Amino acid sequence: MIDLQLLKTVNEIAIAAGNEILDVYNSDQAIEVSMKLDDSPLTDADRRAHNLIVDRLSNLTPDIPLLSEESDAIDYGLRKSWQRYWLIDPLDGTKEFINRNGEFTVNIALIENGESVAGVVHVPITGISYFGGIGLKAWKQNSNHSDGEVKPISSRPMDESSGVRIVASRRHLGEQLDALIGKIENHFGKAALLNMGSSLKMCLLAEGSADIYPRMAPTCEWDTAAAHGILCAAGGEIVDLQFRPLRYNSKPELLNPFFIALADRAYPWQQLLDNQ
Hints:
Layout: H1 4-25, E1 33-35, E2 41-43, H2 44-60, E3 66-68, H3 76-79, E4 84-92, H4 94-99, E5 105-112, E6 115-123, E7 128-133, E8 138-142, E9 150-153, E10 165-168, H5 175-188, E11 192-195, H6 200-206, E12 212-215, H7 221-234, E13 237-240, E14 259-262, H8 269-275
Parallel strand pairs: 3-4, 10-11
Antiparallel strand pairs: 1-2, 4-5, 5-6, 6-7, 7-8, 8-9, 12-14, 13-14
Helix pairs in contact: 1-2, 6-7
């Protein structure tokens, strides 16, 4: 597990990485984009944030290995022996970054025995950080405010009388997701649909602003791990379509299954969706 002081230090690292990203974002020069082998975009901001995080985490916890989206590939034969490691997305939402819409984040998670036990998600544009850990709580902080006040957050219990708020990805609406949203609306009535990029979708659940985020499109483990740790600390969970908690480093490929993030893990979502 992780203690609060270490978690706060990791948040400081994420903020510093966010400043590296903003240096590129706020430049008068056009953002240079190259394409990786998987056809996803890569910018100088990704590289700078990656280098800072890896350097500082390596110095902070030299005994804990690291896996970053921008790392060289690490063979599963080595990775599967890791009981504890840092899982990093230096710039989650590179497309949002390129489009300059502000909805991009720095994600750092601590994984133990396949479980995300702690996470930090920092939003460079706003200065807001979400962080939390299993056995601790979850918090929200605005580093741009002079007092840097840290406020506890928690996911909201499901209240059928107040309707349901669903988070969805702008670019990944499709038949399977539409069908699932239809099942939810058959039970609750018309849903409030919130659209947002990057891991901020899960942070909305963690802070009590939404109830459910179904994802029926590909993601990688570094896309979800940090917000997963925060959401669990706030009272929620992320499950696959069989309602098993999402696991990390359990297979050679780093793709997640389709999943559903839940603000209230005690609410009978599986029964509701299976019976519709």
